[in-house]
Design brief:
Layout: H1 5-20, H2 28-52, H3 57-83, H4 92-115, H5 120-147, H6 153-177, H7 185-210, H8 217-234, H9 250-271, H10 275-278, H11 281-320, H12 331-344, E1 348-355, H13 357-364, H14 366-383, E2 389-394, E3 397-402, H15 407-421, E4 425-427, E5 430-432, E6 435-442, H16 449-465, E7 471-473, H17 476-497, E8 501-510, E9 515-527, E10 531-533, H18 535-545, H19 547-570, E11 577-581, H20 584-587, H21 592-603, E12 610-615, H22 616-620, H23 623-634, E13 638-644, H24 653-656, E14 661-664, H25 666-669, H26 677-692, E15 695-698, H27 704-713, E16 717-719, E17 736-737, E18 740-741
Parallel strand pairs: 6-7, 9-11, 11-12, 12-13, 13-14, 14-15, 15-16
Antiparallel strand pairs: 1-3, 1-6, 2-3, 4-5, 8-9, 8-16, 9-10, 17-18
């Protein structure tokens, strides 16, 4: 109900204003009705303040005080008229009328100050409008009144005070309407009420100057001004009146100002076209002075506009050269500075790419990822000297420019940065370990910023191909390697389409008898020109370009299909289990666990027949990869952790990842027959797996002595060339025992 009360008040006030004209003209009852409407409107403002509790209550109290004072002036005037039967001018009524203006103006001042702070341009715009309209007031109203020598000086002063007060009220209204931003409904109603008051006052002044006024249509403007002032107070949006406005499209505000200022600036010369004015010396002088003031105001406004444009241009230039998220210089700024450095010094350029950043975004969300980038940016900047430039090139890639440094100095910097980035970072309550691959290049034999960045980029990808978490300096040989990787990447697509890949199987045996209990599926590329290509040459490229997802799915399906055929053809003589390697990229693909389940169902294999082999680094970061491993394990598929002991080797990993099999890396097996650290580690690992109820498989067994020592330490399963190389069709009837071949 309170939300619509302003509408009911406006309707009732309009009807009351119409009823006013139904009463006998100039009668006592008509004047009483006039005063009642004004008094009730003022009282409504006070009650509305109590109802809505606005932020700027004093503004409304000033409006109410002005209305009450105006009503007091009306009552005083009618006392003279109906009690004393006199119509003196000036009188005490004029004191009330003129006192009301400062109250209304002060209320509007509070409204304007609340909506706009430190807006010098807005003040100048309002001054231009007020000056031009004030000039019109002077020519048509104030000047003639001041020149009228037939009345007393006091009467002329009071008569001039009314249009002067109206001019001040008009200036405040112009200032209000020129503030950028959407006006609330309450503020728009206040503006309408003020406009009605101004129109009525100015029209009355002109009529009384050149003719006479005995009541009529102007009374409706004054009355509706009362009513609409009350409606503005009753509107719910009055709570926000005087507060900062919501944003408005800049072109709308600019268009509104431009039209108003253009009209205001043209008023002074337009007045000279009026014949009666052009021949009047006093009017011409006033217009000339007004034109000078307008010129100075417009000059100030234009100088302010120029300064504002320059300031905005500087801000835009700064934004164009800096990254919004981290505040670091961006690629454009980096390339500009690099171009200058190539002409004046010996620049060293390093490109840094975060390893596994996608997993952070997938697991913790982009907000945490953004915070991580900000923290890393600050950490890198803190490590470098002041003349070094750090830029964010995009995504999770940063660049460092040393404008004049030797290769040794550049290597020392990237080594220091790489070491610092290995420390854990706490972001959003999460402790994160971040690794980075860094490539560095110098400009000794090039003057092209693009070429130098390309070299650093090649070196960075070489560092990533070497396992990441390190740095690589550019050399000509890297270009050959990069070209080779690009050629392999292009040929991989053809190889997949033309079925050039083959799956080989390496036995996993039980010690000591050497009986085959499982086979590991290993992919090979049967290249039409180069012959059989090992995975070390093409798997990293497939992971980089994403083809590993399609290739891995093909290996999974091929291995499961082969296992089903062996079971059907060989029965109990076939290997009971098969292992398939899965990359981090595959695990991060949505629906990978469902793919594994569908493949098992297609070939009718029990889930326990399959083991999925993952690396420590693939699941260390958690996220989608870890969840995929859990989902696969829930199917009944066993999980094998490959190369254990060479990656993060966190015991916490064994708590978070549902591991069934630990594959002990070959590096611990090579020297297991010799006393020393490797033998101790191999023994410790078998004790660890027993304690956790896991199966340990020793990889890379190449001699009978290694097999015998592993069996002595307690290993029950082993894999390596000693027991069999990867082949398309293993001979399940042949195995190597610890005691020798049989």
């Amino acid at each position: 109900m309170s939300a619509r009360i302003w509408w009911w008040w406006l309707a009732a006030g309009t009807l009351a204003t119409g009823g006013y004209f139904l009463l006998p003209a100039d009668s006592r009852w008509q004047n009483i009705a006039y005063n009642v409407i004004g008094f009730v409107s003022a009282l409504t403002i006070v009650l509305a303040v109590r109802l809505h509790r606005p932020r700027h209550a004093r503004m409304w109290y000033w409006f109410a005080a002005g209305q009450f004072t105006w009503v007091a002036g009306d009552v005083t005037y009618e006392f003279y008229l109906y009690v004393l039967h006199r119509e003196p001018y000036p009188s005490a009524a004029d004191a009330f009328y003129l006192s009301a203006y400062p109250m209304l103006i002060f209320g509007l001042l509070v409204l304007v100050r609340g909506r706009s702070r430190r807006d010098v341009a807005g003040l100048l715009d309002a001054a231009i409008v007020a000056t031009s309209l004030g000039l019109v007031f002077w020519v048509f109203v104030i000047g003639p009144i001041a020149a009228d020598s037939t009345v007393s000086l006091l009467a002329r002063t009071i008569s001039v005070a009314y249009p002067a007060a109206d001019a001040l009220l008009l200036a405040m209204l112009a200032r209000l309407l020129l503030i950028p931003g959407r006006l609330t409904a309450s503020t728009r109603l206040l503006a309408v009420a003020a406009v009605l008051l101004l129109v009525a006052d100015v029209t009355f002044a002109v009529l009384t100057l050149y003719a006479s006024y005995d009541g009529g249509i102007l009374d409706s403007a004054w009355l509706m001004s009362y009513v609409i002032w009350g409606a503005a107070a009753l509107h719910p949006s009055m709570r926000r009146a005087g507060s900062a406005p919501p944003a408005v499209p800049q072109f709308r505000a600019a268009r509104r100002r431009t039209v108003l200022l253009a009209v205001s600036s043209l008023l002074a010369p337009t007045l000279l076209l009026v014949p009666a004015i052009g021949s009047n010396t006093a009017d011409r002088t006033a217009i000339a002075l007004g034109a000078i003031v307008l010129f100075l105001l417009v000059l100030l406004r234009m100088s302010g506009l120029v300064a504002h444009v320059r300031r905005q241009a500087g801000q835009l230039a700064d934004l164009a050269m800096h990254d919004e998220l981290t505040g670091l210089p961006n690629r454009r700024r980096f390339e500009q500075d690099l171009g200058r450095a190539l002409t004046t010094g010996r620049p060293q350029v390093a490109l840094l790419d975060l390893d596994g950043f996608k997993e952070v975004n997938d697991r913790l969300g982009h907000a945490v990822g953004d915070q991580l980038l900000v923290v890393l940016a600050g950490r890198i900047v803190a490590l470098l000297r002041e003349d070094a430039l750090v830029a964010r090139m995009g995504g999770d890639e940063f660049a460092i420019l040393l404008s004049d440094a030797t290769a040794a100095e550049g290597d020392a910097v990237v080594e220091r940065v790489g070491t610092a980035l290995r420390d854990a970072i706490t972001v959003g309550g999460n402790e994160l370990l971040v690794r980075a691959s860094i490539g560095i290049a110098d400009g000794d034999d090039t003057t092209s910023p693009v070429e130098l960045l390309r070299r650093a980029d090649v070196a960075m990808y070489a560092a990533k191909a070497n396992g990441g978490a390190g740095h690589q300096r550019y050399g000509a040989a890297l270009d050959d390697r990069s070209t080779e990787r690009g050629r392999i990447g292009a040929e991989l697509r053809t190889a997949l389409d033309n079925a050039q890949f083959r799956v080989f199987y390496q036995p996993i045996v039980r010690l000591p008898e050497g009986r085959i209990v499982s086979v590991e599926s290993l992919v090979r590329w049967e290249h039409p020109v180069r012959g059989l290509v090992g995975p070390v040459e093409f798997i990293p490229v497939a992971e980089d370009n994403g083809l590993i997802v399609e290739l891995g799915a093909w290996v999974l399906r091929t291995a499961c299909g082969q296992a089903a055929r062996w079971r059907a053809e060989l029965g109990p003589a076939a290997a009971p289990k098969v292992t398939v390697n899965v990359s981090a990229r595959q695990l991060a693909e949505p629906g990978f666990a469902a793919l594994v389940g569908a493949t098992l169902a297609e070939f009718g294999l029990p889930p326990g027949t399959l083991a999925v082999e993952v690396t420590e680094t693939a699941v260390f970061g958690g996220g989608l990869a870890l969840q995929a491993v859990k989902d696969i394990h829930d199917l009944g598929v066993r999980i094998a952790l490959d190369d254990f002991g060479t990656g993060h080797s966190s015991l916490g990993l064994l708590q978070t990842v549902p591991v069934d099999i630990l594959k002990v890396d070959k590096s611990f097996v090579d020297n297991v027959t010799m006393a020393g650290r490797h033998a101790v580690i191999a023994e410790a690992l078998i004790q660890l797996t027993r304690g956790l109820g896991l199966v340990a498989v020793a990889e890379g067994v190449e001699t009978a002595e290694q097999a015998a020592e592993l069996h002595r330490l307690g290993y029950e399963y082993a894999q390596g060339y000693y027991f069999g190389r990867p082949v398309p069709e293993p001979d399940f009837a042949v195995a190597d025992s610890v005691g020798g071949r049989r």
